[in-house]
Amino acid sequence: MDKHAAIGVFDSGLGGISVLNEIRGLLPSESLIYIADSAHVPYGEKSPEFIVQRSIAITEFLLAQPVKAIVVACNTATAAAVTELRQRWPELLIVGMEPAVKPAVLASVSGKIGVLATTGTLRSARFAALLERFASDVDVITQPCPGLVELIEAGQLDSAVTRNLLNSYVEPLLQAGCDTLILGCTHYPLLKPLLQTLVPNGVQLIDTGKAVARRLQSELGKQGLLVDTQLPVDRFYGSGDVYKTEQTLALLWPTEQSVRALGF
């Protein structure tokens, strides 16, 4: 494996940029390839079989670039497909996402935790296993958030429509006494500035982007695949309307980037 190869990251759309930003901050010399499968966003409303099919196709594309590791920057895709991907490519470093149940349990004082996530994540066996393992002694209140991903994809990060929809999902959790909210979709950290205006100061917002970046760094280090110094080259691909993807990407990524058509 060439340590100078890129790191591949994919999501159903641009939500994984929240993870990509954490990876860039921790690994400034690494080249990154990001796939926004925006033609099929959100994965949370798709069947597990469809998500597995897309995840395999995207992984095959990334391996042809080539890449030295892949981050599945999507909770729903991790739940549906990461086991299949690891079985198909056992030698490949594949890092997935999962809702931050354990750190939320440790952080909560009230013992009441709210989970904002897609329908697909909340229905998954992987999420159920997390609750059984880490949350048996607390109250966990789940809140599916249909429509939120689509607004983020459209670049509506602080619009009145987004604020009203987000508030309608958050308010019942606050009324129930939740003092910790898990952002169980990689799109949702992109709304942190807005979300912080909707919750009291004492409510903690928890996601796993930083933890995923640290794990990626650790695993690459173990395999001798970390790059010390190089000028990184970042590439972005999209399966949907690449012009719209570029417009929203400009709000989320620090440097101007073009988005190439994925082609499948």
Output the keywords:
single chain; 264 residues; alpha/beta; Rossmann fold; six-stranded parallel β-sheet; four-stranded parallel β-sheet; 11 helices
Q: How do the SSEs run, as a string of H and E?
A: EHEHEHEHEHHEHHEHEHEHE
Extract low-pLDDT stretches: none
Q: Describe the biggest sheet?
A: 6 strands, parallel
Total number of beta strands: 10
Regarding quaternary structure, what we see is single chain
Indicate the overall shape. Answer: globular
Query: Radius of gyration, rounded?
Result: 18 Å
> Structural class, judged by helices and strands?
alpha/beta
Number of helices: 11
Roughly what percent helix?
A: 40-55%
**CATH-defined fold name of the largest domain:** Rossmann fold
Number of domains: 2
Q: How would you state the average pLDDT, rounded?
A: 95
Output the strand order for the largest sheet: 4-3-1-2-9-10
The N- and C-terminal alpha carbons lie at a distance of 26 Å
How would you characterize the overall build of this protein?
- The chain is an alpha/beta fold and 264 residues long.
- The protein has 2 domains: 6-97 and 210-261, 3-Layer(aba) Sandwich (Rossmann fold), CATH 3.40.50.1860; 101-207, 3-Layer(aba) Sandwich (Rossmann fold), CATH 3.40.50.
- It has 11 helices and 10 strands.
- The chain has helices spanning 17-26, 48-63, 75-88, 101-107, 119-123, 125-134, 148-153, 160-175, 192-196, 209-222, 242-252, and strands at 6-11, 32-36, 67-72, 93-95, 112-117, 139-144, 180-183, 204-206, 235-238, 259-261.
- The chain has a 6-stranded parallel beta sheet, with helices on both faces.
- β7 (180-183), α9 and β8 form a beta-alpha-beta unit.
- The longest helix is centred in the first third of the chain and has 16 residues, at 48-63.
- The radius of gyration is 18 Å and the shape is globular.
- The relative contact order is 0.20.
- The model has no long low-confidence stretch (mean pLDDT 95).
